[in-house]
Amino acid sequence: MSEQTEAIRPCQHAGPTRRGVLAGVAGVGGACLLAACGSSSGGSSSSGSGSASAGEGDVGSTGTGVPVAEVAVGGGVIVGDVDAPYVVTQPTEGEFKAFSAVCTHQSCTVSSVSSGTIVCACHNSEFDATTGEVLGGPAPSPLPELSVTQEGDTLVVQA
């Protein structure tokens, strides 16, 4: 009779379970979201009017430079510096501001600057391009301000 009992036991196999497959798919999906959140290709992505990207430009030994001509009034430039990405804005003609480009919500790099607003596309946080203050979204605190000085036709940002 024990043979018959063995025959009616539920099938036990070495293949993946439905729970295991679903957990694996969720893990891959989460990894994809995280990779998209923090990805950067040396420059930055930009969208909207007044937003541009710039590569790193050495200006002396104290900082990196952004050409003044690339920073539109009301817009800005996001620089995907490997160690510390930053954003340079020009809220009004001749007034330049710089902030960390790392969103204070989940450390994504901000994605665009236009109409006086810095936007993080990861979760739609918005920051004031003049002060770095949070305007909306889940970001808990403002973008840290950085020092920016104009040296001829170049803006030099200090961390």
List the helices and strands and how they pair.
Elements: H1 2-7, H2 18-38, E1 51-54, E2 58-59, E3 63-67, E4 76-79, E5 86-89, E6 97-100, E7 112-114, E8 117-120, E9 125-128, E10 134-136, E11 145-151, E12 154-158
Parallel strand pairs: 1-4
Antiparallel strand pairs: 2-3, 3-12, 4-5, 5-6, 6-11, 7-8, 8-9, 9-10, 11-12
Defining key terms:
disordered N terminus; alpha+beta; 8-stranded mixed sheet; 159 residues; 12 strands; 4-stranded antiparallel sheet
Structure description:
The longest helix has 21 residues, at 18-38. The chain starts with a helix and ends with a strand. The protein is globular. Residues 2-62 have low confidence and may be disordered. The chain is 17% helix and 31% strand. With 159 residues, the protein is an alpha+beta fold. A hairpin with a 4-residue loop joins β8 and β9 (125-128). The strands form two sheets. It has an eight-stranded mixed beta sheet with strand order 1-4-5-6-11-12-3-2, with no helix packed on it. It has a four-stranded antiparallel beta sheet with strand order 7-8-9-10, with no helix packed on it. It has helices spanning 2-7, 18-38, and strands at 51-54, 58-59, 63-67, 76-79, 86-89, 97-100, 112-114, 117-120, 125-128, 134-136, 145-151, 154-158.
